[in-house]
Amino acid sequence: MTQTSPFTARTTAQEILAGADLTGRRILVTGGGSGLGAETVRVLAAAGADVTLGVRDPATAKSLGVPPLDLADLDSVAAFARWWRGPLHALVANAGVMAVPERRLTAQGWELQLATNHLGHFALATALHDNLREAGAARLVVVSSGAHRDVPFDFADPQFARRPYDRWVAYGQSKTADVLLAVGAARRWAADGITANAVNPGWIMTGLQRHVDDTTMKAMGAMDEHGVIIEQPYSKNLAEGASTSVLLAGSPLVAGVTGQYFEDNHIGGGAAHALDPEAADRLWELAAAAVS
Q: What keywords were assigned to this record (predicted)?
């Protein structure tokens, strides 16, 4: 792992930005209403950033004065992007879904986890590209997962049309796609002053686990027979889990760093298949065709 900052896996998001002033910076955080997203929003806003939350629930969105953002619905993504005006200094692609039990397809025919975690964010980032460029030195932060390491992107059957659907394989593939999104954007947008990096926040208990039943949690060793969560040595709390996203979105320490995979506030840990520029270009073309 490459030493990128003085921080560790136990550094909190608030500690990352201690003394930082993000006044005047406009930041969009998808999934900003709960979990890691909410902590990311809280810390960035406390540092002075003007933070907009991308949330799916219409009532919540209305209360925030923003359009609802459903990443599995490309029409919703397009409407949100049209609503945005002016520069965008950082886009934190944080929202996601994990381990959907059964194969589900969106209106565009994409498997739900791949659509939500990757395609929706691809559509949002590309639609807001001019706004990112307008900001100058803008940042794209794509939240991935260590689950990507064992699952290369299957270009032959990405939607599980022929191979048996496996919810964990589908999740891992979507997270490989997230890293490839950062690599692809870094390759294309450097001349616009836009950096793009992927992040593994680590193991944190949030609403992301809502599709994981107790039996599965027990089999994973994450829950005891009485239904009590078992803390693992590598488990993080929300403040620790949001730290690397906050580092990439707001810290001057990583200014100019692009096309990398970060975990525990440092570069490293990304699988070769997720950092492959040829795969990144191939997936970019696939996603671009889907949103055109």
A: Oxidoreductase
